[in-house]
From TrEMBL:
Protein family (similarity comment): Belongs to the bacterial solute-binding protein 5 family.
Localization per Swiss-Prot or TrEMBL: Cell envelope
First-listed, main subcellular location of the protein, grouped into a coarse class: other
Source organism, top-level taxon: Bacteria
Solute-binding protein family domain location: 88-419
Signal peptide as annotated in the record: 1-22
Organism: Gallibacterium melopsittaci
Alphabetical UniProt keywords: Signal, Transport
This protein's name: Peptide ABC transporter substrate-binding protein
């Protein structure tokens, strides 16, 4: 996971076991724009995608943006993958098992092949994961994040890469040992950094055939295990002519594009309220501040790709909390805030046009109470980050982007021992619920634990949610095989197909 002020990892991954493979299933479960136009056009064999590929990145260990990631997901496939809704589904691993959630066995399908026809083996994953740590790229810490045994020590040069907790039992059985129990490990394994990587070979639905100044060309991999469900036989990633009406799919399209849709991101924007600051130690004061804010008004007239929310977690996770609080003025007076002794608060933010506008909107809302005096503090990114880490703030602009689609990707930040818990929030009950969720296999029980965590965080009033980020995308009206509610931002070319009359 990452705060969107920093870049620990770059790619978002996802959750939940749901194996959808047939085109008929996809047609019944997709969300698209109207595809009933009589002007159905475009090739049924060639898909045209476009984006910023000035310097295409073909190494899964080096990728750092969503557009190059889409290209790589066409070329490579990991142990698990995504369905069109953003749920985890078996890929190279057709099944997995664990008795204690620390020692895992993944059983690889025997028909998984590289683009030269050779088998994809457990050793391929061992070598790729070890190389990820040896090369120490920006994505290498992800292995430590998912708690693969010895990953952190290897990154610190305390152990060799061969000490990593991954082992090939036989060509089709991969053992993964963790430092701690993690019931949702499979949900975290679709990360692009964890695909097997062999020079010049590809194990995904497509193979790279050519790169020139205008486009990157892919051709369907004849050895792909699920090739029967691949509709487009060629995929072109255009590097120029980005305003062409012949483009089928384009993230971040030019502003001149008329039909632009929005897909959700696993990114939340919020303010943190410092419970250790003398002014905000009283929970009633923090509750009063949050109750005064309308997230809709906070982002009104601000140019951003996002939708207002009152929830910490993205909408796709279906969590919400409700607090039946007394009026803000009553809460403030209970905390001995009066006209003679008003509450002085400072909003700290990293200075950009968007952050400044939001801070100004918040200031206006807080100032509706005569008991609150507000000042704004715009800082450089470095100054803002330093104050955040050192807890030198009252309310500070913050947020989080997750690397996989599960509540734990957001809520684990609020465990007292999590290094990303920058406000040093401590609620022993929250710690206990999060630890229980780490080993809980029953989905309903996990959901209940996380709901309790969400409710506790809301009651403690340490987070002021404002909006969830969305990503603009232009999609041809006759394209199908996708779900616009998929929050992972990963849309495989192999799942897409053309509607024909």
């Amino acid at each position: 996971m990452k705060p969107f002020s920093k870049s620990k990892f770059s790619i978002i991954v996802c959750c939940c076991l749901f194996f959808a493979i047939a085109c008929d299933q996809q047609k019944q479960n997709i969300s698209t724009t109207s595809n009933t136009s009589s002007e159905i056009s475009g090739s049924t064999t060639t898909l045209v995608r476009a984006g910023n590929f000035a310097q295409p990145i073909l190494d899964p260990h080096q990728v750092s943006d969503i557009q190059n990631t889409a290209l790589l997901y066409d070329l490579y496939e990991g142990l698990v993958s995504y369905d069109i809704h953003g749920n985890i589904t078996p890929a190279v691993a057709q099944s997995w098992e664990s008795k204690d959630q620390k020692s895992w066995l993944f059983h690889l399908r025997q028909d998984a092949k590289w683009s030269d026809g050779s088998e994809v083996t457990a050793e391929d994953f061992v070598h790729s994961w070890q190389n990820l740590l040896t090369n120490k790229t920006a994505l290498a810490p992800y292995l430590g994040f998912i708690a693969v045994q010895n990953a952190r020590e290897i990154l610190q040069n305390k152990l060799p890469a061969t000490a990593l907790g991954i082992k090939a039992i036989d060509p089709h059985t991969l053992a993964i040992q963790l430092d701690k129990a993690n019931a949702y490990l499979p949900m975290m394994l679709a990360h692009i950094a964890l695909v097997p990587n062999k020079s010049g070979l590809y194990n995904g639905a497509y193979s790279l055939t050519n790169i020139d100044d205008k486009k990157i060309s892919l051709t369907a991999n004849p050895y792909y295990w699920n090739k029967v469900h691949v509709s487009f036989q060629q995929v072109e990633y255009w590097r120029t002519n980005l305003s062409s009406t012949k483009i089928d799919w384009q993230f971040l399209p030019p502003k001149t594009t008329t039909e632009v849709q929005q897909v959700p991101k696993l990114c939340s924007y919020y303010y943190e309220l410092n419970p250790h600051h003398p002014t905000l130690q009283n929970t009633a004061i923090r509750q009063a501040l949050i109750s005064l804010i309308s997230s809709q008004s906070a982002i009104a007239n601000v140019a951003l790709n996002g939708k207002a929310t009152v929830n910490l977690l993205p909408q796709s996770m279906l969590f919400s909390s409700y607090l039946n609080l007394p009026p803000a003025e009553q809460l403030l007076m209970q905390a001995n805030v009066t006209n003679q002794h008003p509450l002085h608060i400072t909003l700290t933010y990293d200075d950009s046009a968007v952050n400044q506008q939001i801070a100004q909107n918040l200031s206006r809302q807080f100032s509706q109470s005569d008991l609150i005096h507000v000042s704004l503090q715009g800082k450089t990114t470095q100054e803002w980050a330093t104050q955040h880490i050192q807890q030198q703030f009252q309310l500070i602009r913050s947020g989080w982007c997750a690397d996989y689609n599960d509540p734990s990707a957001f809520l684990n930040n609020f465990h007292s021992k999590n290094p990303d818990n920058l406000i040093h929030y401590y609620n022993p009950q929250v710690d206990q619920w999060l630890e229980q969720a780490m080993t809980e296999l029953n989905p309903e029980a996990r959901q209940q634990l996380y709901q309790q965590v969400v409710d506790a965080i809301a009651q403690d009033a340490i987070i002021l949610p404002l909006f969830q980020y969305y990503l603009p995308v232009s999609i041809a009206p006759n394209l199908a095989g996708y779900d616009l509610n998929n929050p992972t931002q990963i849309f495989y070319s192999k799942d897409l197909y053309r509607l024909v009359k």
